[in-house]
Each structure stands twice: as C-alpha cells, then as structure tokens.
Amino acid sequence: MASQSQNPQSVHEFTVKDARGNDVDLSMYKGKALLIVNVASQCGLTDSNYTELSKIYEKYKDQGLEILAFPCNQFGGQEPGNNEQIMEFACTRFKAEYPIFDKVHIANNPLLQ
Question: Listed GO cellular component terms (predicted)?
Fold first, then answer.
C-alpha cells in the first residue's frame, strides 16, 4: 500500500513497499527517468515484456532510467504468486535487476488512480 503527502503533486511524494516489505520513498528517484510498469508472470506477453524490460534497463540504467515494476493480480488473475514467488520468477528467469514492488491493488492504490 502506498502512502502519500496530503496533496501529492508528484510520484516522488509516495512511499511504497518493495517485494520484501521494506518502505521505499520514491523521492529517491528524483532526477531519474521512471518507467512505472504493471507486471504479471502469467500474462500472454510475459516473456516478451520481461525480456524487453531487462534489455531497456541494461541499456539505459547508466543514463538515469529506473524501471519500477508493480505486480498486480486484478487483470485476469495473471499474477497469482506471492511476492517471494514473483521475485524468484522475475530475477531468476529474466534476470530483472530493477526494483520489484509489493503486489498492488488498484482499488486502494493512490499511485494508480
């Protein structure tokens, strides 16, 4: 679940949980280009999406790109795993080096509304 300041003006004003349950203050990404993406391990596009995300991150991370991956199971039940399973899948199979966050729920997530 994301928390925010009273009247957020920027994504940098949110604090979210990473997949390990740690708080992450998104202000740490100020000055970087952000690609905030929904990911799912059982989507028909999973292989190509994770592969391309890893390629993009490798190519542009030194130029200030950060990919912030937020899994969600609300789109066709395509991400049924828990955070540990999601991390294992993304980091082992696709060598994801970018941060993966706690599984989000759109209905109560101010970042995604």
Answer: cytosol
Tens-of-pLDDT digits for all 113 residues of the chain?
555 556 668 899 999 999 999 999 999 999 999 999 999 999 888 899 999 999 999 999 999 999 999 999 988 889 999 999 999 999 898 899 999 999 988 765 555 54
43 classed as catalytic: yes
Sheet holding 3-4, edge to edge: 3-4, 14-17, 23-25
Residues in the chain, overall count = 113
Catalytic residue among 11, 36, 43, 91: 43
Architecture of domain 3-112: 3-Layer(aba) Sandwich (3.40)
